[in-house]
Amino acid sequence: MSLAIAPEFRERVRRDEPLSRHTSWHVGGPAEVFFNPRDRVELAEFLRSLPPAVPIHWIGLGSNLLVRDGGLKGVVVSTHGALDLLDRTGESTVRAEAGVACARIARQCIKWGLGPAEFFAGIPGTLGGALAMNAGAFGGETWGHVLAVTTIDRGGATRTRPASEYRVGYREVIGPEPDEWFLEASLSFESRPAAHESEVRALLERRRASQPIGEWSCGSVFTNPPGDHAARLIEAAGLKGFRIGGASVSEKHANFIINHGEASAADLERLIAHVRETVARVHGVQLTPEVRIVGVP
Q: Known catalytic residues?
């Protein structure tokens, strides 16, 4: 039996939408219901209309996400192209909605003479995902700049919470309520009038030189264990280039797994498991996936 959708939203949702169209790995089965809100008002109305037990999943640019081949039951809410407001709210403060690409935050802060924000250029997703996992790059982390967040719950109710209400660690964020999702954040930076877009270009050039940019990947697959780097451990275990089906460990950066165009989500998941097992056997280290693996096999 298909999920019932309120009549006013039936023309706005897509059923059985292939999530391979919405993930940076270009894999993933269908979303039972896929919804891309026009704005937060429509989003709140849509959430209020859903049955209380229906699973709700969120997606931005689809990086850091592996959707299994069986897809996702329930509702997938896409913030891409929506919730994309970015403005300056004070001398050193910025408001950004969850659908804003992190690279855009980096570029705009440079134009405003604010920083350090260049590290956002190295995060291949939206602010919503960066808030959910405390994403970082080039030595910077998202929550080091968060003053407050605005969230939305299943009932469509919004609230503003100070950053102090969240427990934040390395690639981990634990909030006061499990069924609240980020709508926007107030971010604080320092005045850097001499900041120049060449700084972002230099960082991106470093990224292009060391990572397989342009290939189908999810970003970093594993978090770095304390005092070490996942890529070093994987390379030292002899896994660069190791392939399962249409997926392989990148020859350029061992903490990236590439879909060469014909991989299934199952290929990618099997390769992730093989890398973990091999690194544990060779080095005695249990790697923790940074990528979220969701859905039905």
A: 171, 220, 290
